[in-house]
Amino acid sequence: MLERGTRFSVPFEVPFPKGLMQSGPVMPDYEYNPNKNAPKVQKRDEVTGKLQFKANVTDPAETNAKRASFALLFVADVQPVPETPELVPGTDMRLIELEGLTAEPRVMGQGEFKYLGYIFRAEGYRPAGGKSASRSDKAA
Description:
The structure is a single chain. The longest helix has 7 residues, at 133-139. The chain has one domain (8-139). It is built from two helices and nine strands; from the N terminus they run E-E-E-E-H-E-E-E-E-E-H. Helix content is 8%, strand content 35%. By secondary structure, the protein is mainly β.
C-alpha cells in the first residue's frame, strides 16, 4: 500500500502536453505565522530538506478554468531562474518547461465537489523545447 505523501517522478510532457505558462516571479514559500512582526521562515521540503519556492502557473491543456491555474512548488537549494524570455517584457509571463518533476496525488475540493488532483513539485527549469539530460542519454 502507498503511504500518504508518496511522490511519483513524471516526464514534463505527460501532465503538461501543451506546456505551462508562468505568470509572475518565483517567490520563497514562507511558513504561516500569525505574528506579522516575526521574522519570515522559508519552508523546507519534508522529503529532501531543500528550500521551497512557488510560482503561479497555468496549464493551457486544462479545460476546467478553476483547475487550469495553480501554484507550482520548486524544491531547490537556491531560487530557480526561468530559462525562457518573457512573452511581454516586464510582465513575468513566460512559457516554461520543468526538470525533476514529481506529482503527489491529493484529494482536492470541498464537500460533495471533491476530485483527485496533484501537487506538482519541480527541481528547476529546462530550456524550452529541451529534453532532460537523462532523456537525451537514453536517445543516444
